[in-house]
Records
---
Amino acid sequence: MGSLGGIPLYVLEFGDELVYFSPYTITLFLLALTFTLLAIVSRPERQVDVAFGGDAYTTKIISVDEMRFRRFMAIACGLASMGAMVTGDVFNFTLFTAMVGITNVGIVAAVKSPHVQDAAYQYGLVALSATVPLFGAAALYAAATGSLSMIELAKGTLPAVPLVAKALLVIGVVGEGMAPFYAAKAEMFRAPGAPYVIMCSLSSLLIFLRVAEVVMIG
């Protein structure tokens, strides 16, 4: 019987779909919620460039329209992360994971910097490619077990989840922002505007922690 990170404290069903709260998922959900609230109320930083070997420095001016869009994408990223933390449906988990990858690109895509936009484009290609194994894994889960419910899979009464399905799920998550493809994000972090950029790292970390639990189920 797989682990659900503790006994589910509450299960909310929406037809064939469900969300559940366990000590593990609640902790991850609260982390995502906290940083989403910070993205809503925080004032963005003003990035300063310092000339090497001298005292000269310049402060980058960020337009209001740019920061509004990035704030919106950071909030969307937080909401997608919260959904991924508490969903009890494998397909919805893959859907929320893909949404996190899209919003990560959106957080920095509005930055008027060729280096940052080029990095966002490259990462976007990686994240787009990762959707193939990601949703392929969900299809294999349904085909092999007849269910996408993590609660049902954890009972141990359904056929075992094939290792290839679990492997594809992990590969899809890796492509959405974890190592080694995480290196594609490196140039993106030159984009000004914390705490929005921090959401890229936090969301990827939360998704990784959740998929570690999901692959243990079934």
---
Amino acid sequence: MKSIKLWAGILGIVIAGYILLISGYAAAWNVLTMSGHINGFIGIVIAGLLMAGSIVRIGMRKAEDDSGSIISLVLFAIAAAIAFAITPVYRYMQPWAMICLAMGILSVLMIMWKNTRAEK
């Protein structure tokens, strides 16, 4: 389970870095052209939440309780909610929302798996 959390956290950091790169470019373009779009800034927030959740997942993977998984679940859920809310306006953020949702589901599965192993 610790290795799953480690690899999922590394994958989340890599994906968050990619989103941050794209969103940083979009935010800079929006500011320079004064277009009034907020997609770059929303993407930066989503990437920050995804990266924070992934870092918590890696940092708390050896914890005895479920606090790391719960914290990362909350961060991924907030990121997914923001991404799903902005998806009708900016369609390209839908895969990001799905990634955040998948990371949140993985956190729930880790909590459930740890609780079932503790009961045995």
